[in-house]
Specification:
binds iron/sulfur cluster; mainly alpha; 12 helices; 2 domains; Endonuclease III, domain 1
């Protein structure tokens, strides 16, 4: 990663201001875009969302959740049938195996229910910290960590909130500087900003409410100057 220029505002103050401006810009972005009506559905939808858009997952789960109501349903179905049912989300062999293995563990060790702790969720096959954080934060309102998906990873690096590329280390960096009360909503707002403005290939820095707080805009727009944006 290229060297970042020193932020113009002290880091703690800068982080506070980033949170404030994202809240103002995306007041509605407080939860996952995945559709679900219970923790099991969210667990399945999150596993399906790997390498797939939320829109496509929602299209698939609209039918899937009518057919599979309980962990037992996923545990008992022939694997090939589950694969067919989730095929449009891609990587369906692995995803079907993960869902079925997780469902069997839920049935055998958790009474068919999704557990409510990071430690227990991480024992489920196919569940890493990102999935566990999505489920805990969105289905139970429990802040055990911060969701680090591809947008959160990219924006955290661009904003100089971390120098790491490993997602678990990025999460640790974010947990150290983001107040715990913001752990659930902060990634959703960052994701929204990543989708609309701080895009992967060409971020729209001239339209960004964080430009004067961001050490990276100069890499993308070397000839431009940004002014304070309190006015934005
Ligand atoms: S200024 Fe540019 S690089 Fe920085 S957060 Fe905004 S869009 Fe992303």
């Amino acid at each position: 990663m290229s060297k970042k220029r020193v932020p113009q505002v002290e880091n703690a103050q800068r982080v506070k201001e980033i949170i404030h401006r994202l809240k103002k810009a995306y007041p509605e972005a407080t939860k996952t875009a995945l559709n679900f009506s219970n923790p099991l559905e969210l667990l399945v939808a999150t596993i399906l969302s790997a390498q797939c858009t939320d829109e496509r997952v929602n299209m698939v789960t609209a039918e899937l959740f009518k057919k599979y109501r309980t962990a037992e349903d996923y545990a008992r179905v022939p694997l090939a049938e589950l694969e067919r049912d989730i095929k449009p989300t891609g990587f369906y062999h692995n995803k079907a195996r993960s869902i079925q293995a997780a469902a069997r563990k839920l049935v055998e060790e958790f009474g068919g229910r999704v557990p409510q702790s990071m430690e227990e969720l991480l024992t489920l096959p196919g569940v890493a910290r990102k999935t566990a954080n999505v489920v805990l934060g969105n289905a139970f309102g429990i802040a055990s960590g911060i969701v680090v998906d591809t947008h959160v990873l990219r924006l955290s690096q661009r904003l100089g909130l971390t120098q790491h590329t490993d997602r678990d280390k990025v999460e640790q960096d974010l947990m150290a500087i983001i107040p715990k009360r913001e752990w659930i909503t902060f990634p959703h707002r960052l994701i929204e900003h990543g989708r609309r403005i701080c895009k992967a290939r060409k971020p729209l820095c001239p339209e960004c409410v964080l430009a004067d707080l961001c050490p990276s805009w100069k890499e993308f727009y070397p000839t431009m100057t940004f002014t304070s944006p309190s006015a934005k």
